[in-house]
Amino acid sequence: MRILITGGLGFIGSNFIRFVLEKYSDVEVVNVDAMKYGSNPNNLKDVESDERYTFVKGDISDYELMAKLVKDVDLVVNFAAETHVDRSIANPYSFLQSNVIGVFTILEAIRKINQDAKLVHVSTDEVYGDIIEGSFKEDDRLRPSSPYSASKAAADMFVLSYVRTYDIYAMITRCTNNYGPYQFPEKLIPKTIIRASMNLKVPIYGTGKNVRDWIYVLDHCEAVDMVMRKGKKGEIYNISSGEEKTNIEVVKTILKLMGKDESLIEFVEDRPGHDLRYSLDSSKIREKLGWKPKYSFEEGIRETVNWYLSNEWWWKPLADDKVLHPTPWKLGW
Questions:
Q1: Is residue 148 among the annotated active site residues?
Q2: pLDDT for 181-237, tens place per residue?
Q3: Among 103, 261, 267, 284, which lies 20 to 30 A Cα-Cα from 230?
Q4: Is 291 domain-assigned?
Q5: Is 139 a catalytic residue?
Q6: Is 216 marked active-site?
Q7: Same domain, 8 and 140
Q8: Catalytic choice (28, 33, 86, 125)
């Protein structure tokens, strides 16, 4: 099988590439990545010499490039996206360009060049908006709250329209908050680990009571792989661990694992439109495809803390003002 993976130098994409290369001996992976701020060549330093792996620098909104790359593949897995909510508040345009125009370009390339190629479009739980009680199912209404989530929701609608109008074989996954090795240091968990390791204050927005479902990245990779192999055309699959934690719980857990005092916690001004709680019902992928997470939050967060503490070479070049500033959405990115 020949797979085109977009955004494979990012956090989840790089973990997925490593996952499929380790799991399958007969797979060929082409990774196209624009190498923007969330991309890091060091994420896949250990697979560069694998003859089954090819890297192409390029933007998914470049039609000529995507048409060329789509031509000879069996499957496209789209991880490429601008993902940081704070950045989308400060500079929404780049999110429109990457997350909407980029997905549209992939769809057009498949439609015109290789309609036999399947597409797995990796979306997010944030397209549903927040929910106080209960959990969202795949057919619930979308109510995105940020420019980031709005751009992802728009991309989802394009994918579904191309299934309906052009009979493209495409599927959508919507996952909850990922964590694990190689996550860009701006995100809550790596930022907490890095700042605590330097004995710097750990900023938490508002009251810290915002709730997220946290899933270890390898469990997400397993789910995407299952959708890739068993998913049905036009279907959406929610992916969640059931491990719901408030932000303050997450931070306190990390500090305890690191032997750090909770006095490092610093509450800062909340960001605009901050959703209170995300929650997904993932019974569909569990019942229809047989997926279930392998890692508890306790196991996954311990693995994650140990990885960051053991791999300073990876994160230290990235730990600049964007990581160390307590309210990044105000930086004018």
A1: yes
A2: 999 998 899 999 999 999 999 999 999 999 999 999 999 999 999 999 999 999 999
A3: 103
A4: no
A5: no
A6: no
A7: yes
A8: 125
